[in-house]
Specification:
mainly beta
Amino acid sequence: MGNHRHRLSWVKAAIALLLGILIAMPAKAADCPTGLFRAVAGPDTASMLEIGKDGHFRYGLSEGAVDETAEGGWECADGVLLLTTEPTPKPARFRLDHVTQGEEAPFSLIVTWPDGNAVAGVDFKLDFDKGDPAIAYTQPSGWATDLDGRVPKTIQFAEPFYGTVSPVFPVPPGKGVRLHVVLEPNDMGVAAFSATRVRIEGERLLLEWRGRAIPYERQD
C-alpha cells in the first residue's frame, strides 16, 4: 500500500512537471495555422511557404534576379509564427585576392567568383583623397578609370540581390593599381531566417522579409 501511494505521488509529480514544461514551451499548431501557402504578391513574385505540423517549415522564392530557399524550425508565440533556418547558413563574403601594379595602366578592378568567372553588376564606392567618390558597378570585364591626379584611398563592394556587403578595403598607393576581389558565395541563396516573423491576418500569412510583408494564401 505504501509503495502504491509512493508510485501515485511520483506519477502525479511527473505529470505536473510535464504540464509545466508544455505550458512554458512555445505553441505549435494550436495557435498558428499549418499547411501549404502561396504568395499573392504580383506576377513577378513566385513563392511557397509550407508550415508543417511537426514544427518544420520549407520556403522558396523567385523574384527578379533573386532565387532563394530555406528550411528549418518554427515556433508560435502570441499568434505569430517565428521561422529559423536550420542549419544557420554561412553568409557570402568578399575578399581581396590580390593587387597588381603597372606604371602606365589606369586604375582598374574586377570581381570574380572563386572559379575565376567575372561577376557583373556588383556595386562599389571608390573614395579618393579629394573630390567626390566614384560610385558604379562592375561589368563582365571589370571596371577601369583614369584618376585625373586623384589618389584612391578605400573601396567597398555590395552585391545588390542578396545583400552581401564587403569590408572597406584600403587601396594601396602606386600607379596602375588593379584590384582582384573574389565573391565567395558560400550559402548565398539560402534565406537566413532568425526568428523571422510571419503575422496572421485573417486567412492570410504575412512574411516580414526583404523589407516588406509578403502575403500568402492557403493552398491546401
